[in-house]
Amino acid sequence: MAKLVVKQVRSQINCPLTQKRGLIALGLKRVGQVVEHESNPAILGMINKVKHLVSVEESK
């Protein structure tokens, strides 16, 4: 499966609680933090929920 590199680029301040929990579930706690995940429907759904706060790249 493909790996996704997810980086938080915007702050979670003033976001709804569901989006804050989505960032925590992805393992992101602060702006500039980078995590790597396998590409699966659950992860893609979490990324879609916070797509305006993160940047996503595909890793090899």
Automatic annotation (TrEMBL):
GO MF term set: structural constituent of ribosome
Pfam families per record: Ribosomal_L30 (PF00327)
Gene3D superfamilies recorded: Ribosomal protein L30, ferredoxin-like fold domain
UniProt keyword Ribosomal protein, yes or no: yes
Annotated GO CC locations: cytosolic large ribosomal subunit
Keyword list, A-Z: Ribonucleoprotein, Ribosomal protein
InterPro entries linked to this entry: Ribo_uL30_ferredoxin-like_sf, Ribosomal_uL30_bac-type, Ribosomal_uL30_ferredoxin-like
Gene Ontology terms: biological process: translation
SUPFAM superfamilies given in the database record: Ribosomal protein L30p/L7e
Domain Large ribosomal subunit protein uL30-like ferredoxin-like fold intervals: 5-54
Keyword Glycosyltransferase found: no
Subunit structure: Part of the 50S ribosomal subunit.
PANTHER family: LARGE RIBOSOMAL SUBUNIT PROTEIN UL30M, MITOCHONDRIAL RIBOSOMAL PROTEIN L30
Xref: HAMAP family: Ribosomal_uL30_B
Assigned protein family: Belongs to the universal ribosomal protein uL30 family.
Protein name, per record: Large ribosomal subunit protein uL30
